[in-house]
Amino acid sequence: MAAARGGYTRSLAGRGLFVSFEGIDGCGKTTQITLFLARLREMGIEPVRAQEPGGTPVGSLIRGVLLDSANANMDPRTELLLYFASRAQNVAEVIRPAVKAGKLVVSDRFTDSTVAYQGHGRHLGEDIVFRLEEIACDGIRPDLTLWLDLDPVKARSRVRSRTDRMEVGQDHMEVQPLEFFERVRRGYASIHRAEPSRVRRIDAEGPPEAIAESILRLVLPRISHLRKDLV
Ligand code: TMP
User: Fold this and answer.
1) Max CA-CA distance within the chain?
2) What separation in Å is there between the alpha carbon of 155 and the centre of ligand 1?
3) Measured in angstroms, how far is the CA atom of residue 40 from the centroid of ligand 1?
């Protein structure tokens, strides 16, 4: 039977909250995560940060393989499995223990990235992603996902100005054609339509501070039990 998108997060003792940030390259995710973490710390919450791909010593090695532009001929299925290999390690080593200990986990990407990039962008379809999710994620899914939505043309010019400013080359994903990022964006829209209460769309076009405020307004009601300034 084909796996389907669904809520099957296992109950975890002392459950914390798992929040993920998503969006195409250049959507401003890194800036928003930095602002969000700073605001959480001001409130006395010490979040656990996760990153995909990467976030663990094994995951960092896998990230290097995935994003190395020398590996441009990587088969889409190899790519898919490597993203899930990094995720399985992240779940086991970082995310599951933190959520179980009642912490707030903030992840830079999670399985929704694979649905959007490999499922839609690489044309592998969503079903294969959900089948692997069952194997790799041990029932862990984000409680809340913040999808920073930006037009791919604008996102691309942000990526170019960043790589020019930092004088670095673009990675294996950033060099994909515009049509690829249009498919990825449609993938995120499909996830949002399927799970509108978990996946919240944030307009990523305005000033960073205003976007950060709207993110905080969405998250605050769900983290009041973790806030030290309220106790
Ligand atoms: P980052 O630059 O946001 O850290 O993400 C690295 C790249 O990896 C980005 O282009 C998106 C891509 N990616 C996938 O294609 N599939 C995935 O499952 C994940 C987590 C990231």
Assistant:
1) 54
2) 14
3) 24
Tokens of 113: 């990235």
The amino acid present at 210, given as its one-letter code, is A
pLDDT in tens, 115-155: 999 999 999 999 999 999 999 999 999 999 999 999 999 99
> Degrees (nearest 5) of the Cα angle 115, 121, 124?
65
> How buried is residue 178: exposed, middle or buried, by Cβ count under 10 Å (0-12/13-18/19+)?
exposed
- Residue 99's CB is within 10 A of a number of other CB atoms, namely 23
- The Cα 7–Cα 163 span in angstroms is 38
Helix (H) / strand (E) element for 219: namely helix 208-223
- 117 ligand 1 Cβ < 6 A: yes
Pocket test for ligand 1, best of 67, 89, 109 (most atoms within 8 A of CB): 109
Alpha helix (H) ranges present in 68-207?
76-90, 96-100, 111-114, 126-136, 152-166, 178-194
Report the sign of the C-alpha dihedral through residues 167, 173, 177, 179, in that order: negative
